[in-house]
């Protein structure tokens, strides 16, 4: 399995995976990423241009996720407490290809993103997900993240569980 930065040539594959993930979330009854509030081509293009979008691939791309440096404004208003106060990276837009679902790739991708953050000198990594996204919650906890509280994105159903991994 190869972990690498995404390129603009990957965009059609990334959008296909995102669209499948939006459909799966819908089928699970989750409002996350619905009604145009999920990742779109413009966001993915910006992630690729900023060199913050990563992929896991074998013969094809199987998973994607963004590792974003700097302060996430939504994370500043947590109902709960972040550990430490140093620089951190945020993980967003995690999605696994439909054909690779259930194989632990979200956890594998999260492990790679945490290692990449450490390579860049940042040991504090934060992530969030919707309360109904049980699969993502399991992957987050299985990767060693700890629940820290609730954050609210300024969108409908914007309440998210927030997690953090230090070191």
Mind explaining what this structure looks like?
The structure is a single chain. By secondary structure, the chain is of the alpha+beta class. About 30% of the residues lie in helices and about 30% in strands. It has four helices and eight strands. The protein has helices spanning about 10-25, 40-50, 105-120, 135-140; strands at about 1-5, 55, 60-70, 80, 90-95, 125-130, 145-150, 160-165. It starts with a strand and ends with a strand. About 35% of the residues are buried. The model has no long low-confidence stretch (mean pLDDT about 95).
Summarize the structure in short:
This protein has 167 residues and is α+β, with helices and mostly antiparallel strands.
Give a topology summary.
Elements: E1 2-5, H1 11-27, H2 41-49, E2 53-57, E3 61-69, E4 79-80, E5 89-96, H3 105-119, E6 124-129, H4 134-142, E7 146-152, E8 159-166
């Amino acid at each position: 399995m190869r972990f690498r930065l995404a390129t603009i040539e990957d965009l059609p594959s990334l959008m296909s995976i995102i669209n499948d993930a939006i459909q799966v979330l819908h089928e699970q009854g989750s409002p996350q990423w619905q009604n145009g509030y999920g990742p779109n081509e413009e966001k993915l293009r910006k992630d690729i241009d900023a060199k913050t979008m990563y992929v896991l691939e074998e013969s094809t791309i199987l998973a994607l996720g963004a590792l974003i440096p700097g302060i996430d404004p939504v994370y500043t208003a947590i109902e709960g407490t972040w550990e430490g106060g140093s620089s951190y990276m945020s993980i967003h837009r995690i999605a696994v290809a439909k054909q690779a679902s259930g194989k632990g790739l979200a956890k594998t991708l999260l492990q790679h993103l945490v290692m990449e953050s450490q390579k860049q000198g940042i040991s504090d990594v934060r992530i969030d997900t919707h309360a109904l996204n049980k699969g993502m919650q399991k992957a987050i906890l299985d990767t060693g993240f700890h629940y820290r509280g609730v954050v609210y994105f300024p969108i409908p159903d914007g309440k998210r569980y927030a997690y953090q991994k230090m070191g």
